[in-house]
Design a protein that fits this description.
With about 110 residues, the protein is α+β, with helices and mostly antiparallel strands. It is built from 4 helices and 6 strands.
């Protein structure tokens, strides 16, 4: 089961997040919120893959119920990467051939060229 909520991302735009229940406490913690903001600021709030405004601080090593309470995984900057929505989708689902435009409409990669 996933818990969904809307988050005003680092850029101020709304972003729907699907969160696993075991991760809710971590993602709502002051430590994560401080780390997320400080890390984003350290990379000028830009996606580290494409240079567009970044909105998601991504964990390179995926969080699991086993490691979600380990700060060396969850809060270590070497495990973080700031991504825009499209690059985050590409990291998690590289087989997908679509992206979301600034109005939230789903478009194919071919249509966006």
């Amino acid at each position: 089961m996933l818990i969904s909520f809307v988050w005003a991302g680092l850029s101020g735009s709304a972003l729907r997040i699907d969160m696993k229940p075991w991760a809710e406490t971590f993602y709502n913690s002051p430590a994560w919120k401080r780390t997320r903001y400080a890390y984003s600021k350290s990379v000028a709030h830009l996606c580290e893959r494409c240079g567009e405004p970044g909105v998601i601080v991504h964990h390179k090593v995926q969080l699991t119920p086993e490691n979600v309470h380990d700060p060396s995984v969850t809060l270590d900057w070497s495990n973080l990467m700031l991504l825009c929505r499209d690059c985050h989708a590409a990291v998690h689902k590289p087989e997908k051939r679509y992206k979301v435009d600034e109005l939230g409409r789903v478009i194919t990669w071919e249509d966006s060229k």
